[in-house]
Amino acid sequence: MKQPLRKDLEPVAASFTVKELVEPHFDPNWHFHPHYQLFLVEEGTGTRFIGDSIKPFVPGDLVFLGPNLPHLWRSDQAYFSKQSKLITKGIVVYFTGDFLGTAFFEQQEMAPLRQLLGHARQGLEWTGPTRNRTAAALRHLTTQPITFDRILSLLTLLNDLSHATDYQYLTSAGYTNTVKPTETDRMQLVHDYVLGHFPDDLSLDKVADLAGMTSPAFCRYFKARANKTFSEFVSEVRIGHACKLLMNGKLSITQISFESGFRTLSNFNRQFKDITGQTPSTYVKTYRQF
Predict the structure, then answer these.
(1) In this predicted model, what pLDDT tens digit does every residue of 235-288 receive, in sequence order?
(2) Strand order in the sheet with 36-43
(3) How many CB atoms are located within 10 Å of the residue 158 CB?
(4) Residues 178, 222: contact at Cβ < 8 Å?
(5) d(C-alpha 278, C-alpha 241), whole Å
(6) DSSP state of 178
(7) Complete domains list, the chain, with CATH
(8) Which parts of the sequence belong to the HTH araC/xylS-type domain (predicted)?
């Protein structure tokens, strides 16, 4: 039986948790939990799903998530091969909103941090200079013993993030998590199927059947929980894969369009711009600036 979408972290004596992750691939389960999560990818590539946001991830990916925001860092398929020698690395920090007391962040001095925590409920990512400073601070945090100084380090890091301006929101403004912890993990089945078959002609009837629903019922179910239609979801997965291929710079745009599941270049170009706001060539130029 698969694990439920609701993920409960192991209890610890310390006020917050910081972990270095070294695994063949990141956790492949789409899940959520009642903790804030600050996560840095140090090694590995794949597709990141957060709420209704779908984007590729590479080393340096830095994200801050609020409580109960569904997420999944899905490593590329090569990481799941039995013959693979690839590994993923990351640093993650978990803490609850009351980890320093129920009213700590309500104090006047905590206003910037309180605003940061509020923004995190929509998901945040940093792509500018803040990302490098935060990566260094997280690495330092992993070396510290569980003492008062470690709490100061985390608060200093959060304070730095609260004053940074080089961030962007991840989910749409109206996104809310409507998945119930007691619900069967149909969405996990959908994610797994689409990620394994997106280069092909996907059948809505097949996916609905996997979810144990009729096609019309599945379409209503999916939109209510993903805040987008199933076809929009598939397009974003395909464009996310195309973005990774563009970053690699090994294939032409025409080859990338077919590798990503598009049958015509014109359709690929149109959907790429609709989703990213840029043409494929402009996207490459923007990416190489970082």
Answers:
(1) 988 988 888 788 778 889 999 999 999 999 999 999 999 888 889 988 887 666
(2) 17-23, 88-95, 36-43, 62-65, 124-126, 167-169
(3) 23
(4) no
(5) 15
(6) -
(7) 17-169 (2.60.120.10), 186-287 (1.10.10.60)
(8) 188-286
